[in-house]
Automatic annotation (TrEMBL), chain A:
Pfam families: DUF2231 (PF09990), PSCyt1 (PF07635). The keyword Membrane applies. Keywords: Heme, Iron, Membrane, Metal-binding, Transmembrane, Transmembrane helix. InterPro entries: Cyt_c-like_dom, Cyt_c-like_dom_sf, Cyt_c_Planctomycete-type, DUF2231_TM, LRR_dom_sf. It comes from the Bacteria. Residues 161-261 form the Cytochrome c domain. This is Cytochrome c domain-containing protein. GO terms for molecular function: electron transfer activity; heme binding; metal ion binding. The chain crosses the membrane at residues 17-35, 47-70, 82-101, 113-134.
Automatic annotation (TrEMBL), chain B:
PANTHER family: BLL7424 PROTEIN, DUF1501 DOMAIN-CONTAINING PROTEIN. This is Sulfatase. NCBIfam families: TAT_signal_seq. The lineage of its organism: Bacteria, Pseudomonadati, Bacteroidota, Flavobacteriia, Flavobacteriales.
Length: 462, 503
């Protein structure tokens, strides 16, 4: 199986095109044979010998081209042999069928019609078999039945796990990527470039060009090198027309080769795993809530109507959509919009804003006569991640309303009347990362006294 | 008025496309009425003028939606809401400030090895010197903070805040002389005429406070050096209202805000109303967006009569704040005072504040020059970081410190035990960022023992721009503007977001 001259391979690649000619001609001949039995269509019988002959001629061409293609060595030998012999048999039988049809060979049987029909039927059956084996060569043996209703999904069933740490790096993370993006060409029956990703043995064995896998050195491993090439490069994998790997997928494969040392049984917990990889992995495995503290995913919310936006803006709020077309907003009430003269206006404004409370991610209400009672209202804004309410007259009692807030990760309460009593409230907010508490009575001593294990960072200033 | 213009249509394709997308007549009618109504409202009651923040007229809403849909911004959740860029113009010497190179001491006065220079282009100012003697920094370095970052004795205040800073030590630029290099940093191109970073942000993200410009520039009065010009904060080919507005460095940052003597301003409403009508007619006839820009500027100027005096009044700042920024901060127009003013502008919702401090061009007398520069800037810079932090603003404010290039390790002119000069060096220099979305107490990039070549993680100006836009929720490849037949972006055809810098 050495390299055939390029020109031969070039011609060989026309095989998949040309094979469809005999298929068409011969099936056409078969149909005519059946139709011709009816009186009405008897005349069509005249075309049968020509159709069979054209089928034969194109079969010969297809065989020659097919042989040329087989010289590339990209195909599994056993499967190739089957296809090869079936192809030759079909061609030979087609010749025979033609000879019978034009009566160069005269069979002793008196009932000629039956002879013709049975040979052409046999031809079509052989043709189907040849085509099937050819298809298996190109697409892989399980291509046809993979999604069939009777197929029991031969996939190895992986044990259910409930956290990322328990996942076996290869089985749960790397293998599904290879399966999805690579295995259609690199499997036991197709083996493009001599490479198969069917199982660990064939992966380690690698392909024809370079070391497919070098444990601990992803950048030198051919399987990573190829996917990182410029997509226009001729060695880029997967080839044009197939879906390229995403950066996350490349990260995972790299992680398997480098951190897990290309080991097939290491678990995530035993391997040095960065936060980023953990994130990707938990996404792949469909886990939620494994993200870093403070990095809340963005909620999915309904869009807000223009009308609703307009009424809220009319109350003096500046609303900015934080991600285009996401329905997620930053809401700012400019400082001093509320003064002692119009203090009651805040209730109404917040009420109006609360119509879109789930859409608000960042909320700024600095220096606006905010009181304890308003915090209760604000605690209903479940998706708020950043709450900026400094320079308002709020106390520990008011802040207590926020104790169960689950999304908040940054809270600015500088220059308010809160005291160290609020430190507990901060700690009870599960996602809270940073609290700005400059110009409150909270001091460094308080922080030293009350040092919860997993509490937020409290910034006091100078 | 001049009705004979009514049927005139633009024959410029770009204008025609704008005409199609906006019902102009409707728009203009609303603009003139909107302006009038606003003017009336604010004359009757200043409080009302303020409360109009966030209640954009119907016109604004149409425009806003139009822009929003066209640009599709932000592309992702931003980390930064605003930025203050402390531009150190002239090219600060990285190896005298942050890029500690202890091995140089043993090489004092030796010719810089050819292997280090490689094929570097030298300037005409020192390229013809018979020797290029290695000049180690005469300043002591120490490590500070939990991040153990090296800082020289020149910057004692900055040393206190290193745990907030993200040092970029492998900065690289393509430009070796001031004007092209500073243009490159400000606009992504070495020739003047492209939009500046601040203009792109204003164009892409709009304003957070309709009463103040989105992009404001402040220049230290207590420094001299390579000239600065308006193209550095210019809008280039973007609509004119996105250009940076320079505040004067002195007692009155904006002149003529007060009504002249013996004029009470009561008929200004009438004047602006009529002017709006005239401009509308003109715009109706020619469809020139510059007319809209002019109308927007008039409106802005009018609003600034109220908003600027309030924001620039630093009299209500407590003493301890002035002490933190240093005694210069009581002297308007100095770097320290500009830092303080910068904070106030950011607090009021200005998106982009850019300070320029000239005089970092130490070709001769480098040690003395640097002492002087650092004395004027170090305390203000550090105070700004601390002040933003204690107010919780560092959470969503990006702070950038840096010049247009670095300086050479070899001495330009004579090298003595106490004196040396340094020439321009674009191949390696240090900058830092802090705040919104960048890793605090972090260092990215590394130079060789001579601070001459970047040996790890180079960071090009285009990459810096791409990363900056990324922090604002912008994909730098998708914020474009069509001009002269092609779409331009800040990073042109370059730039990669440096994810390693991001939290």
């Amino acid at each position: 199986m050495n390299e055939a001259p390029d020109f031969i391979l070039f011609l060989g690649r026309f095989h998949p095109l040309v094979v469809h000619l005999p298929i068409g001609f011969l099936i056409f001949a078969f149909l005519l044979e059946i139709l011709g039995r009816k009186k009405k269509f008897e005349a069509t019988k005249a075309a049968i010998p020509l159709a069979i002959f054209l089928g034969f001629a194109s079969s010969v061409v297809a065989c020659v081209l097919g042989y040329m293609l087989s010289l590339s060595g990209d195909y599994n030998n056993d499967a190739l042999d089957t296809h090869f012999w079936f192809g030759l048999a079909t061609t030979a039988l087609t010749l025979l069928a033609w000879l019978i049809r034009v009566e160069i060979i005269k069979l002793p049987n008196k009932n000629k019609v039956r002879v013709n029909i049975s040979t052409i039927t046999l031809v079509v059956i052989l043709l189907g078999a040849t085509g099937h084996y050819g298809g298996n060569l190109t697409h892989g043996g399980d291509y046809l039945t993979k999604y069939a209703p009777f197929n029991k999904k031969e996939k190895r069933v992986l044990a259910t796990i409930d956290k990322v740490d328990d996942a076996i790096v290869f089985d749960y993370l790397a293998q599904p990527i290879l399966e999805n993006k690579c295995a259609s060409c690199h499997n036991e029956s197709k083996k493009k470039g001599g490479l198969s990703f069917q199982d660990s043995i064939s992966i380690v064995k690698g392909g024809k060009s370079g070391a497919t896998l070098i444990a601990g050195n992803a950048l030198e491993s051919e399987m990573i090198k190829r996917v990182l090439l410029n997509p226009d490069h001729e060695d880029f994998m997967p080839p044009e027309g197939k879906t390229p790997l995403t950066t996350e997928e490349i990260d995972i494969l790299t992680y398997w080769i480098n951190q897990a040392d290309a080991n097939f049984s290491s678990k995530v917990s035993t391997v040095e795993t960065s936060e980023d990889i953990k994130q990707i992995a938990s996404k792949m495995l469909g886990f939620k809530g494994t993200h870093k503290k403070g990095q809340t995913d963005l909620p999915t919310v309904n869009k807000v109507s223009e009308e609703a936006l307009r009424t809220i803006k009319a109350e003096g709020f500046v609303l900015k959509e934080l991600v285009f077309d996401s329905g997620l907003y930053e809401a700012v009430l400019p400082e001093n919009s509320i003064t002692e003269n119009n203090a009651s206006a805040l209730d109404i404004k917040l009420e109006k804003l609360s119509k879109i409370k789930n859409n608000i991610i960042w909320l700024y209400l600095e220096n606006n006569q905010l009181k304890d009672k308003h915090l209760k209202q604000i605690s209903q804004f479940e998706n708020v991640q950043k709450l900026v309410i400094d320079r308002n007259n709020i106390t520990d009692t008011g802040l207590y309303a926020l104790r169960d807030h689950k999304s908040l990760n940054s809270l600015n309460v500088y220059n308010t009347s809160i005291t160290k009593a609020s430190l507990k409230t901060f700690s009870s907010m599960k996602n809270l990362q940073k609290v700005y508490a400059w110009h409150t009575t909270i001091n460094n001593n308080d922080l030293n006294e009350h040092k919860p294990e997993d509490g937020p960072e409290i910034i006091l200033g100078n | 008025m001049c009705d004979h213009h009514d049927e005139l249509k633009s024959n410029n394709k770009d204008f025609q496309s704008i005409e199609k997308q906006l019902d102009r007549r409707h728009f203009l009618k609303k603009t003139s009425l909107g302006l009038g109504a606003l003017a009336l409202g604010s004359l009757l009651n200043t409080e009302k003028a303020w409360s109009s923040i966030g209640t954009p007229s119907h016109t604004d809403a149409i425009l806003e939606n139009y822009n929003k849909n066209r640009l599709g911004l932000p592309h992702h959740l931003p980390k930064a809401k605003r930025i203050i860029y402390l531009f150190q113009s002239g090219g600060p010497s990285q190896m005298d400030l942050f890029d500690y190179k202890p091995k140089l001491v043993d090489m004092f006065g030796q010719d810089l090895p050819k292997s280090v220079i490689g094929k570097t282009r030298l300037t005409g100012m020192s390229g013809s010197q018979s020797t290029l003697p290695v000049a180690p920094s005469i300043f002591n370095f120490k490590q500070y903070g939990e991040s153990r970052a090296w800082v020289s004795d020149l910057m004692p205040y900055t040393a206190e805040v290193v745990d907030e800073l993200c040092f970029m030590k492998g900065m690289q630029t393509d430009q070796i002389n001031h004007t092209p290099a500073i243009n490159f940093f400000q606009t992504g191109h070495q020739l003047p005429g492209r939009p500046s970073v601040g203009s792109w942000l204003s164009y892409g993200l709009g304003s957070d406070n309709e009463n103040l410009p989105t992009f404001i520039t402040l220049i230290s009065k207590n420094a001299k050096g390579q000239p600065l010009n308006a193209s550095l904060w210019g809008n280039g080919f973007l609509p004119t209202e996105h250009q940076g507005v320079q505040f004067r460095s002195g007692k009155d940052p904006v002149l003529y805000l007060n009504n002249p003597d013996n004029y009470d301003g009561t008929d200004r409403k009438k004047m602006l109303d009529y002017l709006g009508k005239l401009n509308s007619l003109q715009h109706d006839a020619y469809g020139d967006p510059e007319i809209q820009a002019r109308m927007a500027q008039y409106e802005m100027a009018y609003k600034m009569q109220t908003s600027v005096p309030e924001v620039t009044d630093i009299s209500d700042e407590p003493d301890h704040i002035f002490e933190m920024y240093g005694k210069d901060s009581r002297n308007p127009g100095t770097y320290a005072a500009n830092c303080l003013m910068g904070r106030k502008l950011l607090e009021k919702g200005v998106k982009f504040v850019q300070l320029f401090h000239q005089g970092w061009d130490q070709h001769i007398g480098c040690p003395d020059g640097l002492r002087n520069q650092c004395k004027k800037t170090d305390q203000g810079t550090a105070a700004l970081i601390k002040d933003l932090k204690q107010r919780g603003m560092l959470d969503d404010t990006l702070v950038v410190w840096g010049g247009e290039f670095g300086r050479t390790v070899y001495s330009q002119g004579q090298l003595t035990d106490t004196n040396y000069g340094r020439d321009h060096h674009p191949k390696a220099f240090t900058m830092w960022m802090a705040g919104a979305g960048v890793k605090p107490g972090f260092q990215y990039g590394e130079t060789d023992d001579f601070s001459y070549n970047v040996i790890k993680d180079p960071l090009h100006v285009h990459d810096f721009h791409a990363t900056l836009l990324h922090l604002f929720g912008i994909d730098h490849e998708r914020l474009t503007f069509k001009h002269q037949g092609r779409r331009y972006r800040l990073t042109d055809v370059h730039g990669h977001v440096v994810k390693d810098l991001l939290t």
